Amino acid sequence: MADTAASPPADRRLGRVFLGIAIVEALVIAGLYAFGWYFR
Amino acid sequence: MSTLDWVIVAAYLVWVVWDGLRLSRRTNEVEGYFLASRSLPWWAVGLSVMATQLSAITMTSTTGQGYADGMRFVQFYFGLPIAMIILSVTVVPFFWRANVFTAYEYLERRFDAKTRALTALLFLVSRGLSCSVIVAAPAVILSIVLGWDLTATVLAIGLPTVIYTMFGGVQAVTWTDVKQMGVIIAGIVAAVVVLIAGLPQGVDLATALHIAGAVGKTRALDFTFDLHHDYTFWSGLIGGLFLALSYFGCDQSQVQRYLTARSVDEGRSSLFMSAFVKIPLQALILLTGVLMFVFFIFHAEPLLFDGRALHEIHASGRTADYQAIDRDYERAHDARMTAARAMAAGTTGARDAFVAADAAVHVARARAVALVKDVEHDDTWTDVNYVFPSFVVEHMPIGLVGLIIAAIFAAAMSSIAAELNSLATTTVIDVYKRHIRREADDAHYLRVSKLATGAWGVFVCLMAVYAVRLGSLIEVVNRYGSYFYGSLLGVFILALGMKKANGHGAFFGLLAGMTAVGVVAVRWHVAYLWLNVVGAVVVTLVGAAISRATARAA
């Protein structure tokens, strides 16, 4: 991929990745909490 | 260990050197040697980033932590995904487009030579020492568990790593990292499978986790806001964020990984891999430790996992004391097993009996540990790091023992290789080329680069052997080395985030930050993750103030 200044589509793609990371982290933390609660 | 296991370990060591050298191309120029001519795909860089961070200490110590303390340590990584997002829009494009070899090289362009020299020196000292600990820690454990001489273990870990790193450069480092991550994951998964298969009849995985949960081992989150607790949700999220920002954004051993990527986007993607995978991977490693705890409820568990300590006790004439503790321990262990079986069968009141018996086991172990501390005159002694290697050697089937010992080697070597490569890069680019010989052809710098890699390899191996004699001192040095991280981050915040910041502000701000961290650590004994926040904030504030004052004076 060309290494040029960020373009709007690139920004959108990056935004989706950030959202994905945030969702996955929230799910993992919630999962760890549920794991500890269920197997308490 | 059986012959087959030895063959697997030996085959791994030969293969990793051969493969590292085979895959290193275009290393006949300095940019190829240190940065792979910026040609590597994101997934290879991403796996290399993770392999560098996952050392043998992670495999032995984190599983041990899971065994002793449960899942809580996973909170340490909660700030990491956020750090990756921040770094991907700040540091990664910045360093990549600045066309630098090292993070510190950029600081001279932005500030001045003294700031570059100080940050490079801090990196070389702290990383050089911590790299020797990365060699020494698994070398000591493996030498005791496998019955090898310590020097032989250090050489078995260090020599192959130095060879492929010295001759193959960063390409050898990255491509062996990729395969070593495969060996590490295979080893962890194999251990989990054997642990689950080793549960007695009537105890399935869910029951095993309920048993562990009865004594708090499955509880991963602690929302207490206490600055003195090492691992809480808040220290992991905030302190861990600052630590991850410093480590992945300012430490050459990590910066160099994503500078080898084909493009800014691929550099970013390599960090996103860690953002997605790191917490689940660490949770799996900790879960391995929790399952070991359950496994040892139903199997013979040594009172001390470090066999050397037992010899010390016998040699000091305290055998009778030890035997008395051991008798109490065996009684408590039997009672705990009976209670655990009753729990699995659903007997009323079994849970309370299990918790009480587990506490008795803990008391007996604490007495044994106190005895060793007394005999060895070492208040920091612990055998938690020996639990996993002991389990592997004593309880894993033939063939898998070799695989997991190879995985521990792989974890050590992947970290050491990246450290050696980055130490050599900083030595050549920030010291030799900048201060000793500024004008020479590429072939000369390439020769010096290989020599620097070899020299750091020799230094690290020698220090690793002596680290054992220095005992806890080297651990202290290593721990204090990590205290620089937050302050270093502060310098990069000034560089990238404050246009008016200048060299005086960065240099004296860095000194002020390190002093503040030292004072806070000694005076208030704050949990070390918070020290990263202190360092970064003090450097940023003091640096901004000095920059402003000196700009006005000028």
Feature tags:
heterodimer; A: mainly alpha; rod-shaped; B: 554 residues; mainly alpha; 23 helices; globular
- Rounded to the nearest angstrom, the radius of gyration of chain B is 24 Å
- Roughly what percent helix of chain A? over 70%
What integer is the average pLDDT of chain B? 89
Q: How confident overall, as mean pLDDT of chain A?
A: 79
Question: Residue ranges of chain B: pLDDT <50 for 5 or more in a row?
Answer: none
Structural class of chain B: mainly alpha
Radius of gyration from the alpha-carbon trace of chain A, in angstroms:
17 Å
Structural class of chain A: mainly alpha
Unreliable runs of chain A:
1-5
The span between the termini of chain A is 49 Å
Beta-strand segment tally of chain B: 0
Order of helices and strands of chain B: HHHHHHHHHHHHHHHHHHHHHHH
How would you spell out the order of helices and strands of chain A? H
Strand content of chain B: under 5%
Biggest interface: A-B, 20 and 32 residues
- The helix tally of chain B amounts to 23
Fold and architecture overview:
The complex is a heterodimer of chains A (40) and B (554). Chain A has one helix and no strands. Chain A is mainly alpha-helical and 40 residues long. Chain A is rod-shaped and about 45 Å long. Mean pLDDT of chain A is 79; it is low at 1-5. Chain B has 554 residues and is an all-alpha fold. Chain B has 23 helices and no strands. In chain B, helix 3 packs across helix 9 and helix 18 crosses helix 19 (442-470). The A-B interface holds A 1-3, 10, 14, 17-18, 20-22, 24-25, 28-29, 32-33, 35-36, 39-40 and B 71, 74, 78, 81-82, 84-85, 88-89, 96-97, 206, 209-210, 212-214, 218-221, 263-266, 268, 272, 275-276, 279-280, 283.
Chart the SSEs and their pairings.
The complex is a heterodimer of chains A (about 40) and B (about 550).
Chain A: H1 8-38
Chain B: H1 3-22, H2 30-35, H3 42-53, H4 56-69, H5 80-89, H6 91-98, H7 103-110, H8 113-146, H9 150-197, H10 205-214, H11 233-250, H12 252-259, H13 264-298, H14 307-315, H15 319-344, H16 350-376, H17 387-395, H18 400-436, H19 442-470, H20 472-481, H21 484-497, H22 503-524, H23 528-553
Helix pairs in contact in B: 1-9, 1-18, 3-9, 3-12, 3-13, 3-18, 4-13, 4-18, 5-6, 5-11, 5-13, 6-13, 7-8, 8-9, 8-18, 8-19, 8-20, 8-22, 9-13, 9-18, 9-19, 10-13, 11-12, 11-21, 11-23, 12-18, 14-16, 15-16, 18-19, 21-22, 21-23, 22-23
